[in-house]
């Protein structure tokens, strides 16, 4: 079979193996999957080595985290005191912060001065008690009637179970019909890889030739078939 | 005996326990039927090594002494030599060191959570420790140990019978669906979780058992989940029932809090036994992979080229993928052996539908080096996630994990249960990695980035109860007498919509009335270890004069496919199948094949050979035969007539086709248009194709199907042609035209109604 290519085999650190592989003359390439084992896959060791799937103490991060992040983005100059202010109203003197009390509804710090403004803010409005739109389930269903007689309210946004702690909606399935690895993201805007040109069989080739011939004849006739053109050109 | 007073009290508490065969102990040892054999063999009961042990008050030392004695305390016979050999290895198991600790905890609590990794010996040893403490022969109550899988229940029972030096089926037995190997002497019973659930339907207090061990609870199968909820309730009523929940993962907290019986109680106590595991080094790829199968193949080859001796376990998702990968790996390894003096490698596929003798091959030794002093050989097992928990293969040092597995998922809106390739959970990934550290320190290669591991994978695999059609479960719960399904204490309650769907399906099948109460039909249907649809079909088959035939079809549908279609002989297999084909449907084809098989059997032919020649699976046909016998017995108990239409009658097959509809009227599809091959399922409006495995060559307008298969396309498999008039006649409630949404199916039904009415009017006019 193929003699081992010296220039490839002893070069283990070559990262551009695929390119090097492409240099093999065509007649020496084997048709199916050949040389797969020479194309290395690199691995990096795990940063966290112990085999534990569940954290001992579930990380309960303080809810301020995201707010901090947001503020550090919008108020880059106030990097130290980002937590004190929530509104993007014009910055006030830091002395005022001491007078701020948390709003009883949305728990955000607010001073008496801009209470009205605060109450109009989106963050405050969202925290106000409000009702949800009713569930879309068909009320005439026998199953729903049964659950309702046993005390489940479809509009309550709760699940089943002893403390109604169950999931609200069934788990969604996602069909995976490709071999893409885990976590890969196909960047948008790049067209999908082109399909390879199809090989045509004899019949199709014959048809295509005939079609081309007809087309050429028609063109020929249009161009040279009558003497209109010659007349027009005054020949 | 010191605790005989306690035993007395107990038996008076549950004096009404049903099992009439079992005579309850009266405190008088002379009358105990369980010791009768001891007296015969020994002549003197006081010689028994168990004599001085007191129930719920034994020590590890006492038990060891009993185990060491010459006489087998359970049979009264002498211990064989082999017994002592096994006993020695048993004492080396990690769990043995904590026997006393286990007993102390067992005595002090009603419910115990036990965590031991695979290889700790918990499945075989803990039930025996319980056996030596419960001393069931003194009070007549058994010990049960549940397993999620039939194979595990059988093989573990065999193993434990060997370890105790008793006959399987005598003191130690097993019970799985359609097979019961226990006897009157049985003290310790391994069973599938589903089987214990079925027993609970007739014995809601589980009064036959003094201790129930739920093994592999971390797998969270449907039956285990329901058993947990049920046992939690029973434990509050029966303080003498002990429960041990065994799990292999570290996520025991959830079990502990769940099993604190009352709100104010502390969580159930936990006993953890370290597994015999070695550290596993974990590697990730720096970038996500484009093609995980190819990356997996290359990783295997890379390991073979550069890593020291040790076997490889590669996880892939399904049969096709696995066979493909095996082919590619073996091609490449041949190259490597030729080109670069690599060692030999044997490659074994492993998936559920593989015949057992081929599954056994994975335990073969790795191949020897090609020449003396050559590089060592290794084996590579390419498996689905059955190698994740259920099967332990020693010698695995390298694990390759692409991060996917096939998972069942149920959509209650379209009523489709399908197996889809999905990312695994973190717990699953860790379990896979752990497989590398069974014999020595190992390595796990994950074909995804560490970031993907942290961000893309969910913590725990969803329990089966959230991913399944619940109609069978709901029927069982109703039979168990659970009134309020809303507040039933599931560990993970299912989604309301899934529950609603199940209730409605049962309502249409007339197993539940409109208020959700069990009907007589429902009660009878729950007696059968079948899906409600199949059970209802079987029960109503005498009305169609074909219960014998429907019984056969039901059995054939309850076993894996009987057709064999080897890759290298597809054409011949198809020709053979065509011999049995019935133009009207696959159900009838199945029946023909079964009748031919029974015919060959009666003619005294070599059935195995006959099956081989006709490309039929002997294994599955004979198990269908067994299932048939079991179902027949249940039918006889319920006084369901077994009748047939004479074969010469022209309605022979028509009756069968009509009878199919009695249970499967919700699984009907109509052809979209007269020249299309696409069908639309009734009410769910799913567009489907007929699975290419069908033997039906005509295209019919209306078909009933057995299952819905979702792969890259949506298929319906095992179909039979029906006439739509039958639908209106057999299931008028479901086919009430007003309940249909506008569409082709509705207009077809309206036309049909019109036709039927006209015909009746004509008849009336005459």
TrEMBL record, chain A:
Pfam families: G-patch (PF01585)
Molecular function GO terms recorded: nucleic acid binding
InterPro entries listed in its UniProt record: G_patch_dom (IPR000467), GPANK1 (IPR039146)
Top-rank lineage group of the source organism: Eukaryota
Chain residue ranges for the region called Disordered: 77-103
Domain G-patch: 139-187
Family matches, as SMART domains: G_patch
PANTHER family: BAT4 PROTEIN-RELATED (PTHR20923), G PATCH DOMAIN AND ANKYRIN REPEAT-CONTAINING PROTEIN 1 (PTHR20923:SF1)
Protein name: Protein pxr1
Automatic annotation (TrEMBL), chain B:
Matches recorded under SMART domains: DEXDc, HA2, HELICc
Pfam family, one: WHD_HA2
Domain of life: Eukaryota
Record EC number: 3.6.4.13
Sorted UniProt keywords: ATP-binding, Helicase, Hydrolase, mRNA processing, mRNA splicing, Nucleotide-binding
Hydrolase listed as a keyword: yes
Domain (Helicase ATP-binding) ranges: 103-268
InterPro entries: DEAD-box_helicase_OB_fold (IPR011709), DEAD/DEAH_box_helicase_dom (IPR011545), DHX15_DEXHc (IPR044756), DNA/RNA_helicase_DEAH_CS (IPR002464), HA2_WH (IPR048333), Helicase-assoc_dom (IPR007502), Helicase_ATP-bd (IPR014001), Helicase_C-like (IPR001650)
Reactions mediated catalytically: ATP + H2O = ADP + phosphate + H(+)
One Gene Ontology term from the biological process aspect of the record: spliceosomal complex disassembly
Molecular function as annotated in GO: ATP binding; hydrolase activity; RNA binding; RNA helicase activity
SUPFAM superfamilies: P-loop containing nucleoside triphosphate hydrolases
UniProt-annotated stretches for the region Disordered: 1-52
Keyword Nucleotide-binding: yes
Domain Helicase C-terminal intervals: 299-481
Composition skew (Basic and acidic residues), residue ranges: 18-31
PROSITE patterns: DEAH_ATP_HELICASE (PS00690), HELICASE_ATP_BIND_1 (PS51192), HELICASE_CTER (PS51194)
GO cellular component: post-mRNA release spliceosomal complex
PANTHER family registered for this protein in UniProt: ATP-DEPENDENT RNA HELICASE, ATP-DEPENDENT RNA HELICASE DHX15 HOMOLOG
Summary of the function given for this chain in its UniProt record: Pre-mRNA processing factor involved in disassembly of spliceosomes after the release of mature mRNA.
Family: Belongs to the DEAD box helicase family. DEAH subfamily. DDX15/PRP43 sub-subfamily.
Name of the protein in question: RNA helicase
